[in-house]
Amino acid sequence: MRKNIPLIFLYLLSYSSFGQKTANSSLVVPRMRVIVDNDFSGDPDGLFQLAHLLLSPSVEVRAIIGSHLKVGDGFDSSKTQAANAASKAKELLQVMGIKNNFPVLAGSNTAQLNDSTPVKNEAVNFIIKEALRTDTKLPLYVLCGAGLTEISSAWLAAPHIAEKLTLIWIGGPEYPDLALPPPNYSNPEYNLNIDQAAARTVFNQSNLAVWQVPRNAYRQAILPYSQLLQKVKPQGKTGQYLSNLLEKLMIRILPYVNIGETYILGDSPLVLLTALQSSFEADPSSSAYTIKMSPRINAEGNYEYYPKGRNIRVYTHLDTNLMFNDFFAKLEMFKNN
After folding, report:
1. 12 is a domain residue
2. Residue 46, domain extent
3. Model's pTM, two decimal places?
4. Among the four 54, 119, 164, 279, which has the fewest Cβ within 10 Å?
5. Which residues pair with 312 in a beta bridge?
6. Do 157 and 182 form a contact (C-beta atoms < 8 A)?
């Protein structure tokens, strides 16, 4: 068996400074492009996901898009949510000392007017331009950890981009045949409710390739507070910054809800399903999904049977052990002071 393994892989296995080499990308090189779209001024899980992705040398980050929340959201009740999100992403880059060669863009501060009218902005234009590039063979993934405004609008403006990218979305409620909703669940599901019109565009109209991580799956990404203290907080400026975000939130919400000793980093599967794909026959091989006919999303934000729906991936189980251990290891290797 050993003789069939590429020599470079044997070198990686035997090299004592593997961590340092992967950290500066001298041996691990990009094999995919990603555009990251998230509500960075909202739940801090988006910034944990972004830090993890930025430390992953197998992905080439092409752009970061700050997206909006639902109007009046408690995380950010302003009217400049997308602009604030872009500012938070830039703040993280500064903390990490990363001089980016990609744009950080503010998306729309508002949802789509309806499921057929796209918003127009620089972020939408960038998605279209990147999808239509002909000078690279690296596959493109658009990673959405919140609403779907920009990718929906990009498809409405240029439907032919569908064959050029894969959308990975953290959002949507449970499928009744796959899982039960949690106690006291919200309806519509949080991320779907950010822009229901955009969700209807993506599910009901588009032919985009979708990998969906619905609520029952993203709730598996549970970080215990003990690991935040032991594995994240001691890791230089980046670890301190991320830990402080979460601890400040815990203090802020304690008068209203006791969240116990865990926090769901529900956006981190965006890294698991891209950067941590298997080496050969590349795919998120340690996580489980089912192929489902895309449902129709109705006016109430619920799924309806849709016989004309295309097939989409719906993830049911996530390899959170791989995901978190990789995050902890990369933070420790990076550990900027």
Report:
1. no
2. 27-334
3. 0.92
4. 279
5. 292
6. no
